[in-house]
Amino acid sequence: MSANMRYIAVDDDPAFHFVLTKMMCQLGYQPPVCVTSAAEALNRLSNPHEQFDAILLDIQMPEMDGIEACQHIRAMAHHSTTPIMMVTTMVGRDYVDQAFAVGATDYLTKPINRIELQARLGMLDRLVQEHNLARSLQFAMESMDDVPGMRFAFEEPVALPKCGSLIEYLALENHLLTLSRLKLHSHTAIAFQVVGGSSLFRRLNRMEFLDCMADVGSAIAACMKRQSFLLAYAGSGEFVCILNRQQPVDTFEIEHELAAELMVYDAVYESLGLPMLEVRVGATVHSGLFSTSAVKTMLGRARASVRGQSAYQLQFLAG
Question: Under a CB-based contact definition with an 8 Å cutoff, are residues 154 and 235 in contact?
């Protein structure tokens, strides 16, 4: 936890601001900047010289609700990846799906509980650190200089620079956790794996590796554009995509389309003496209605399905 992190809390209830400020100070955070309307929040957030590390945004507010406000915030270049935690009552949880669809990172239920608040803020802390790392790497890539001391493990689900189609893996997990077991069962997970990803990680510096993963992420997003999807980099050269179960998915066709999308990078990788990008596509995976850890099981099975098997091999084995 960083005591220097600066939060803005947007809620039309002064009592909520009082309780939130007291709890955050008790947890070692500096007091949040509190505003009572979405319009006031957008005015402050639109100023690039007034920096905020994370945003707490009430879903149900008069005049402009939190979902519309979240859309406006995401349209601001300097807040396109800033963590946004939606705040809602239990009655308002029906709106959480809409909030995630427009770019929310997590959600918090009123009345707030100190233990839950500490856990949620801790998650936002980690996301802010990942974003700071990604921004530093982005700057270094643009200036063509390496950044001493920038380190992350191959397995880490780090934020990718220059890839607006992706959300953070932690945010993807949080979104799925908000769904009821029946709603989760109506979704499909597909994993993608960069062939030889660990070898690329060893051969490239950290900036080059992230740039490579961003290329792959953009190519996957281009192939999935006919679908309504959520896509995240999961670490280990793997991506996970979440789709509605009613949408027909031909993983064999996606794998071929993806190979065609990646061909545009062939000349660049050849000039660097690197192997051409190749990505495997796993089988579609659904959650079990009676699983006690449905989200992690679903994502884990999707990632396991792609390791060592292509989409064609998996379909052949299944058939």
Answer: yes
Give 91's contacts (C-beta < 8 A, 6+ positions apart).
none
Mean pLDDT (the chain, rounded) = 80
Rg (CA), the chain: 20
The backbone torsions φ and ψ at residue 32, rounded to the nearest 5 degrees and listed phi first, read -70, 155
172 alpha-carbon distance from chain centroid: 5
Q: How far apart (Å, rounded) are the C-alpha atoms in residues 28 and 301?
A: 38
CA pseudo-torsion sign 207, 208, 213, 218: positive
Instruction: For residue 314, give the amino acid letter.
Output: L
Q: Say what the pLDDT of residue 7 is.
A: 93
The per-residue pLDDT for 25 is 92
Helices and strands (DSSP H and E) totals, the chain: 13, 10
Helix axes 251-262, 311-318, angle to 10 degrees: 170
Q: Is 142 helix (H, G, I), strand (E, B) or coil?
A: helix
Is residue 62 packed enough to be buried (19+ CB in 10 Å), middle (13-18) or exposed (0-12)?
exposed
**CA atoms of 1 and 123, how far apart (whole Å):** 9
Which helix (H) or strand (E) segment holds residue 34: the answer is strand 33-35
**283's tokens:** 């089988």
Q: Are 240 and 232 in contact (CB under 8 A)?
A: yes
Residue 269, pLDDT score: 78
| 317 vs 109, residue with greater confidence | 109
Q: Are 267 and 247 in contact (CB under 8 A)?
A: no
CA 140 – CA 145 distance, rounded (Å): 5
72 φ/ψ angles, rounded to the nearest 5 degrees: -65, -40
Residue 3 contacts residue 30 (beta carbons within 8 Å): yes
Query: What DSSP designation does 12 have?
Result: S
